[in-house]
Design brief:
Length: 290
């Protein structure tokens, strides 16, 4: 499929601003005289327009002026029988020494009703028990945590109206919303993203597609992504460093069905910078073998 021409994207954004909502595919086809496949792709981009926000959450934390050390994890799935709580605790212990802040890209708890049969894979069936266990574990990390929720928390919200992020947050654990967040921490622009749907055949495909959607001038320096339970670092793609954050959950019925092999562990990322412009981004994946 063709790439969306930038002028078309700008015009579609203008149209969206004018009508105050995302135009339908038919509206896009009629207004810009484009085929359905292009309209579908354009609609997908507009749906995620908060990626292009100028409004970044400004964060200032105590750290040396030339280096920022952060941890990045995702898909902890606390509450699942196959969550490796001990490993998570071990990672957080190390993170206390090696980082100044921690980012979590969604699926902190396992939730319930996410897919057929998931209830049989739970160690704690109550969401409140899951959150309590999670909070006990996160309390062992002494620095600030910035997190988004993912599809597992979203499933809880859809069935009960409970916003799990509100149960996790406190003065040290900052809740940045669901699926996406844009931050600027000590001058470094870091986005959090929790993906949707099945993974692609090629490991880096989803990350590349995400980074391609950013408009010039609106790009972050770093994206930390969760959802696919994989770990990799895509360096300087359109000058953005993309990280998929791995997981702390082993195999489940769903991952087996989807052919996903979990990559367990979390990142330690050191960002050397000159007044908020990164010069070296170094990622180390702390892994454990299961
Ligand atoms: Fe997950």
């Amino acid at each position: 499929m063709d790439r969306i021409p930038q002028t078309l994207l700008y015009e579609a954004i203008e149209l969206m601003r004018k009508i105050g909502k995302i135009p339908s595919r038919k509206q896009l086809m009629d207004t810009f005289n484009i085929p359905e496949n292009l309209a579908r792709k354009l609609f997908g981009i507009l749906e995620h327009l908060d990626l292009f926000t100028d409004e970044r959450l400004m964060i200032k934390i105590p750290a040396p002026s030339d280096v920022l050390r952060v941890g990045a994890i995702a898909d902890l799935h606390v509450g699942s029988k196959s969550c490796y709580e001990d490993m998570l605790r071990e990672y957080l212990k190390l993170a206390n020494e090696r980082t100044d802040a921690l980012f979590i890209a969604g699926d902190l708890i396992d939730g319930f009703g996410v897919y057929k049969g998931q209830q049989f894979e739970l160690k704690y069936t109550s969401v409140y028990d899951q959150v309590q266990r999670l909070n006990e574990i996160l309390d062992t990390y002494t620095k600030p945590i910035y997190f988004i929720t993912g599809n597992h928390e979203d499933a809880v919200y859809k069935t009960t109206g409970i916003d799990v992020g509100n149960l996790i947050k406190n003065e040290k654990r900052i809740y940045l919303g669901s699926y996406l967040a844009n931050t600027k921490i000590n001058g470094i622009k870091i986005d959090l993203w929790h993906g949707r749907g099945a993974g692609a055949y090629a490991l880096s495909y989803k990350m590349q597609k995400l980074i391609e959607q950013y408009l010039s001038g609106k790009k972050p320096h770093i994206v930390f992504a969760g959802h696919w339970h994989r770990a990799f670092h895509l360096p300087i793609y359109r000058n953005v460093d993309g990280f998929e954050c791995g997981t702390f959950q082993g195999e489940t019925r769903l991952t087996k069905q989807m052919g996903i092999f979990p990559q367990t562990g979390g990142w330690f990322v050191n960002i050397w910078h000159s007044d908020g412009t990164p010069v070296i981004i170094e990622g180390q994946f702390w892994r454990f073998y299961i």
